[in-house]
Specification:
Layout (H helix, E strand, L loop, with lengths): L9 H19 L1 H20 L5 H20 L8 H10 L2 H31 L6 H26 L5 H27 L8 H28 L1
């Protein structure tokens, strides 16, 4: 446990809080159970339908599963924090350390989730990806952007009485523009579009991720004090 009379550095705080997130998730397994439910149920539906999945449909289904699984996985990031625990952390820790630890944990969680989605979905519907490096880069940027945006939205939703409803309402207007860019860029990795525009689309994705991160870093300390 962190001693009250010791001021930790920012990186020590982030590492300490990240460990806490991992331990709590391993005990409760909320996110892991939700991920398995969404992924395996969707894959099972595709398997039962016995329909041939074209690369275009594969791309769309992948990102649909990704979006709903991400919202479900990140939704409880701050709702699990009780008032007393949050007040205790407020007196000891930097708000940026709290935000960074949550974003880091959710980013790793989404990477693991996407790996499971790709493996399961490819086993049932094939693997039409032609440029694996580009597709992995797109997925990584998407996971980071979703992790930052949904973590911050989860912090806002946790301040309300109906957090789950506000999480859904606030997240989709933020996610949809990024999702459109992700679908276009991953289409190039699947050979569905000219790869010449993929570089500019990747730059847009990086820019979106940096803007989201900057806004979260600026606004979260004010939200944390509320």
């Amino acid at each position: 446990m962190c001693p009250e009379n010791t001021k930790m550095s920012l990186f020590s705080e982030i590492f300490f809080l990240f460990q806490k997130e991992v331990v709590l998730e391993w005990r409760r397994k909320y996110a892991i159970s939700g991920i398995l439910l969404y992924v395996l149920s969707t894959v099972f539906i595709v398997y039962v339908s016995s329909a041939e999945v074209s690369p275009e449909l594969w791309n769309v289904l992948f990102w649909i599963i990704m979006v709903f699984s991400s919202v479900n996985a990140v939704a409880k990031s701050f709702s699990q924090e009780g008032g007393a625990r949050e007040l205790y952390q407020y007196t000891l820790l930097s708000p940026l350390a709290v935000l960074a630890s949550k974003v880091l944990y959710n980013f790793i969680l989404l990477i693991v989730m996407n790996t499971l989605i790709i493996v399961s979905f490819s086993f049932v519907a094939g693997h039409p990806v032609e440029d694996t490096g580009m597709f992995a880069s797109v997925v990584g940027l998407g996971c980071f952007g979703f992790g930052v945006a949904l973590t911050f939205i989860s912090a806002i939703a946790a301040k309300t009485r109906n957090g789950a409803i506000f999480m859904a309402i606030l997240s989709f207007p933020v996610i949809i523009p990024m999702l459109m860019v992700l679908v276009r860029t991953s289409s190039a990795a699947l050979g569905l579009q000219d790869g010449g525009t993929a570089g500019s689309q990747m730059t847009i994705l990086i820019g979106i991720d940096l803007v989201l991160l900057g806004l979260a870093m600026v606004l979260f300390p004010y939200l944390w004090r509320d």
